[in-house]
Amino acid sequence: MNKQPFLTLGLLFGLLLFVFPSFAQQAYVKPKLSNPESWSLVLIPDPQTYMKYERNLGTFHTMISWIKENKDSLNTQFVLCTGDLVEQNDLLNPDGKQANQNSKQQWTNVSSAFHRLNGLVPYVLATGNHDYGHVSAEYRSTQYDKYFSSDQNPLNGTAIREVGPNLNGASTAVNAVYEFKTPHQQKFLVMVLEFAPRDEVVEWAKKTVDQPKYADHKVILLTHVYLDRNSKPIAKEGYKIEDANYGEALFEKLVKPSKNIRMVFSGHIGSPDNWDGHLGFREDKNAAGKSVAQMTFNAQAMGGGWHGNGGDGWLRYLEFLPDGKTIKVKTFSPLFAISPATRHLAYRTEKTQEFEFKLD
Fold first, then answer.
1. pTM of the entire structure?
2. What backbone phi and psi angles, to 5 degrees, belong to 307?
3. Could you tell me which InterPro entries the record lists for this protein (predicted)?
4. In the chain, what is the greatest distance between 2 CA atoms, to the nearest angstrom?
């Protein structure tokens, strides 16, 4: 056998690594704050595909374990989730393909995972279209209240300030406001709204953030549907529910008229193994002339599509710097970070995945 061609190829590959160092694996660096005085929040995208297959549950628990293990080093103040907590809200007989866990199992899966954070860090969870109706928002009924309540996590119980209108008249956290004081003594509100909120809910939300007692708070709006893949507010979708406000209506009726909504976080959108179909970001001015950063982040069809592994463990952590203005966004996978063989894949560094924005 002539070994010369193989030696030549080896030398050529080594030269390419020397000339183009980006081809080589970069050394893994454990997530950390760029400034030790910063604090962070963790944003978890739609977890439904982790819940609908028993095989995927471990990945989501890895994500929760990572949050627990890094809570102090990242100074994590709260955790947010963009909704679609389950794949089917009220399904008894999964077909094994779309899901192999029935709805009770799915709700138990997601609640038992988040309950691991009880007493450690507050978490606020949006409800998505899959969290309503039989399979996906055929009507406005959700089992959320059976599995999540503010008193299950004492930290949520102490942070909740307002409870919005719900269809069944009960007091739940489906529409609610939480208050957080950051290590920099800034005041933040997290307002979570139901999937495609009703007019009554939008009106309640507007009156709530307009109250004088919240005038000096920065408000984060958390809801499931808001931006499309082109970073434009979604005007309408084809769900059977009526009296629904999607992204465009929410911006016009709530976000734009508000003087203190400064961030909007959402999920919902996706495209099999295509990051461009999962992401959106834009900035607009509100009534006070302040910029509003609106970010959609999902990952559920990354890692094998709609019936894949749930999203490769991707989440985001946002670092809030001590200047009170600068926010750095990192996209990270605790799943890939576990093994030295995959740690070089644990970050997404494209400009749509790792960036910063400022609150003016």
1. 0.92
2. -115, 25
3. Calcineurin-like_PHP, Metallo-depent_PP-like, STPP_CPPED1
4. 83
Query: Does the residue 20 lie in any domain?
Result: no
Please state, as a whole number, how many other Cβ atoms lie within 10 Å of the Cβ of residue 158. 11
Which amino acid does the sequence have at 329? Answer: V
How many residues comprise the chain? 360
Our count of domains for the chain comes to: 1
Task: Return d(Cα 348, Cα 335) in angstroms, integer.
Answer: 13
Structure tokens at 276: 């461009």
In a domain, 18, yes or no: no
Instruction: Share the mean pLDDT of the chain.
Output: 92
Taking only the tens place, the pLDDT of each residue in 143-194 is 999 999 767 788 888 999 999 988 776 768 899 999 998 888 889 999 999 9
Q: Where are the alpha helices (DSSP H) in the chain?
A: 4-19, 48-52, 57-69, 103-114, 144-147, 154-159, 199-209, 247-250, 334-337
User: Is there a domain that residue 168 lies in?
Assistant: yes
Kindly report the CATH number assigned to the domain that includes residue 102.
3.60.21.10
Classify residue 96 by burial, with Cβ atoms within 10 Å: 0-12, 13-18, 19+: exposed
In a domain, 23, yes or no: no
